[in-house]
Design brief:
3-stranded antiparallel sheet; 3 helices; alpha+beta
Amino acid sequence: MAALYFLLTGTAFLARGMEPFALGSLYPWRGVLGVLVGVCAAYYTARYCFARLILDDRGFRLQGPLGATEVSWSEIVDWRRRPPKGGPAPNVLVLYGPDRRRLFVPLIYEESHALEVGLQQRAFPRY
């Protein structure tokens, strides 16, 4: 909803800023900022909210409409929870592969706790 709101209001401000009486006003800049925030919100929604976290014996993957990212348990170099004590948007930062690529996984999925246990064990979580 936020993405749609910011995209629509940003477009409205841009349209209002293009009118002759609005020359020199802040409407175009407000419009650009609104569209930018809307695009970021839409990307977050498509990348994380419509995705799912899948754990198996080989590793885990974050699969959604914008593609899939697969990480095997043996590729994990380091990981940490951000922010450490929960917070408004807790997530896990995983460093993996020989070039230490980064993957942010928000802890919004049903399997989030199992992912943290698996990262600690560097294998499929065993309780």
